Structure formats: C-alpha cells, structure tokens
Please model this.
Amino acid sequence: METSLIVIISLLAIMLILIFMGVPIAIAIGISTTINLIIFTDMQLLFIAQNMFSALNNDAILAVPFFILASTIMVQAGISRKLMELAEACTAGITGGLGMAGVMACAIFAAISGSSAATVIAIGAILIPGMVEAGYDRKFATALIACSGSLGILIPPSILMIVYGVLADVSIGKLFAAGMLPGVLLTMFLMSFVYIISRKRRYPKSPPMPIKKRLIVILKNLPALSVPVIILGGIYSGIVTPTEAAIVAVFLGFFMGFFLYRTLKLKHLRDIFVNSAEMSAMILLIFGFAYSFGWLLALFEVPDSLSQIMLDSGMGPLMFLLWINVILFFAGDFMDPGSIMIIFTPLIVALASALGINLVHIGIVVTMNLEIGLITPPVGFNLYVGSSLSNLSLYEVMKAAIPFMLIIGAALLLITYVPSISLLIPRLIFGSA
Model:
C-alpha cells in the first residue's frame, strides 16, 4: 500500500508541476508517466507506445473525431441560426423570450455537436448581439450563453461521455440515455431563471408571432432538429452503434450544408477538416498518454489501495459522492474537462464499484462536475469564449455568471443524490442501467 501511495503522489506531483510550468497537458501526462515508469519498473519505454496504440485501437474511440467533425460542419453550415429561429418561434410573446430561446437553442445544438465550446461560439455569435440590441444587459446575455453552452457536454451525444464509457467499460448508449433527463431538467431550470430575472429587470417580451407563422418557421427549420433525433434514435433502436451514429451525423451535416440549406461551399472543406483534425489530435493524444497513466496506477494497485483506505475509514456512498463533487470542482478550476475525465475516471470507477454505486449514475455526476468546470476560472473555457464574443473583461463575465453557476450546482446536487433521475430513461430503454 505504501508503494501505491508513493506512485500516485509522484505521478500527480510531476504532472501538476509541469502543467503549472505551462507544459501542454498531454505532454505533462506523458512525461510524468515516463519518469515513473523508469523509476518504479524495469519495463522498456516502448511499452508506453504500445499502450497508446491499445487505447486508440478501439471502435468506440472512432466516434470522437467523427462527432468533432460533425460539430465543425454544423457550425460552418450555419445550423445554429436555424435552431435560433426554431427556438424563437417556441418562445415568442414571452417575457425574456429571447434569452429563453438562447437556452433552448444551446440545448438543441448540444444534442447535435456534443461540444460545449462549439455551442457557445455558434449560438453566442448570433444571440449576444441580438439580446443587447433588444435591451438585455450585455453581461447577463454573455453569462447566459457561456453557462448554457456547457449543456454541450451533458446532453447526448457527448464526447466526454464516450471517453468515460470507454475508460469505465460502460455502455455509451446507456450513458447517452442517462444524460437526457438531467439535460432537460437543467435546461428548464435555466429557462425559468431567465424568465424570473427578465420580469424583475423588465426585459422585453419577444415579439408575438401568429400561430400560422410559428408553425411555418418550425416546419421550415425542422430538418435541423431531426439530426439529434436520427442520431439518438438510431443508437437506442440498435440500428447503429455510437461510432456509426457519429458517421451518420457527418453525412447529415454535409447533406444539409451543401444541398438543403446551401450554406456550405467547397472552399470551406479545408478549414473544416483542418480544424477538426487539430481538435481530434489534441483529445486523442491526451487519451493515449492518460491510458498509460491509468495503466501504471493499476499496475501498482493504486485504485485497490485507495478503495481499501476508504472502506477502512467507514466512508459511505453519500460521503463519497460529496467528496467526488468537491474534488472535481477544484480540479475543474485548473484543468480542462477532457484531462480530468481521463485522469480521474479509473480511480472514481474503482472506488464507486467498491461502494456499489451505479457506474452510469456516477458517469453523469462526473460529467456535470466537468460542466461546472467550464464556467469557473481560471481555466473556465466558456467564460473566455463568452468574453471574446462580447468584448467584456473576464471578471465581468465571471461575476455575471455566478447565479447561473449556483443553479447548475443545485442541479448537480439533485442529480447526485437522486440517482433515479439519471437512471430512469436507461431503465426504460434498456431494461437496466
């Protein structure tokens, strides 16, 4: 047990020192793993390359670059504008309707892209200027979209859920199903908050829209809404795997962009593929190195040792869940969600299994924690994106985002301690979770 503790302290210490020195996270993980492999084992360094190959030689991992490509296509094709029109038609004539439409558009776009950053950029670029022009406070509008964009990693299909599913050996289809109800609840919480604040601050009602015109707008933009329905419907019906669904999403994006809406041109293809390749390479490199990181932990039985310490201390499931939320909250302040997911998942899964906690449920709890990490400084990426879109300082956006953080935090506690919320749909679809 002593060796196990020394190994984990050494791994984390070297990695964190390198990260604070400005070393890219993927490289920091790789260097930490390499140094500890040399110190604590007599294995050849070639083993790291073999481990990375084993990690990436997985059909489910193929879904990650394809969903990233699909997300990039949707942004370039202007699908976000279609979703905004659809959402505005649903909230027409309501106090704060434009802000509520923004939350709804973020939720729908999240179900297409699986990416938080893409959601903030795609919806924020349209909505923030529109809300300011309509009379909303710029800080409020920016914080709203920055926080609503975090739905991109909770509402399926989610790239981080795919990573968790592979690492935890949990059905990705069940994880996607488990994220649906929490995603809908959080969307409703945010929309309700926008309505309350809009009434309090006397923000304008959305322009009323006759029922006939509303139906025309909805029908006109329905193809954009069909994308998540086709993707998730295909997975849950068993017609396609998550990886095949990601490929379908790519072809749907190209079809709508080139033929249906005619917003894509051949000249856009280079930027689409280059941007997608860069983002995919970054994520997969982190995943490959982190797989070796996790393997080294398993070799020295670190998860087993931590599980035994936890059980000996008398820690129960409720206290464990509380500590997971606290630890991941602070980790989210300094690390990006992908790195946190990859590094902490093997430990969390081992400890949760020892306490009999459902691994699908804990997967949603982890994902929601990473969602909060996207809107908490200093790493909170969504805050930086929102700041750049609205030309506000990071401090102004952060201060305006505090009420939204509290709402998401309250939703996290609800989901954490009422597991039936996340497990209801998987049980209905699959018969078990």
About this structure: The first helix runs from residue 2 to 20. The mean pLDDT is 85. Residues 2-430 form one domain. The two ends are 33 Å apart (CA to CA).
